[in-house]
Amino acid sequence: MKITVLTLFKEMYDGFLNTSIISRVLSKKEHEIKLVDIRDYSHDRHRHVDDTPYGGGAGMLMKVDVVHEAIMNNKDEDTYVLLTSPKAKPLTQDDLKRLSKKEKLMIVCGHYEGIDSRIEKYIDEQVSIGDYILTGGELASMVICDGILRLLDESISSDSLKEESYENGLLEYPQYTRPVEYDGMEVPFVLTNGNHKEIERYNLKMAIKETMKYRPEMLNRELSDQEVLLIKEIEDEL
Ligand code: ADE
Description:
Blueprint: E1 2-7, H1 14-17, H2 20-27, E2 32-37, E3 50-51, E4 61-62, H3 64-72, E5 80-84, H4 93-99, E6 104-108, E7 125-127, H5 138-152, H6 158-163, E8 181-182, E9 185-186, H7 196-214, H8 225-237
Parallel strand pairs: 1-2, 1-6, 5-6, 5-7
Antiparallel strand pairs: 3-4, 8-9
Residues 84-86, 110, 128-130, 132-134, 137, 140 line the site of adenine.
């Protein structure tokens, strides 16, 4: 996968690219993040990339001609172009899985009050990372890169990807490590007794419990017989 990021703030990527899992995935050379400074496509010697909006309104807009040229000079025919925007549908794990299958992605980071709306003609999909407003699209683009690259990381086992939150329509069950007792809190006995069938059932029940507590709307879907049974068990215990 090659991800090209168009940004006004390349330096925001410094820590991200040199850290832990991301630097390991990129060191394999199979995957690449290329940073492009949108300002390199500015048309004037002061390197302006923004201008005031027609019709008035607060703030500045990024210029469509500058951003369009930055896109066209850095994409191939088969590059899938994303634009970060708080106006779009919030990103989900399913979106990340779908995007991780693309060979070439481009992420255009919006800034200031946004980009001249005519940019939409050159964009395949707009992506928000949540219903709140950031100062710009750089953090959003790093969230997208991070979520995709970890799916492409061969050293994360497919088992651990299958067990994580959102994978099976549930949040992940709580987990524990040593010590077995800490500050009066004990690790549930069932997890320490080595009975794998019991552990599996317990973990599924706890995953359902977490989901009922934090994200009950995730259970508004077709449930398996075992899920129905465990929900009833949890409700009876309340
Ligand atoms: N730019 C500003 N806020 C954003 C958000 N929530 N998601 C994506 N891009 C943004």
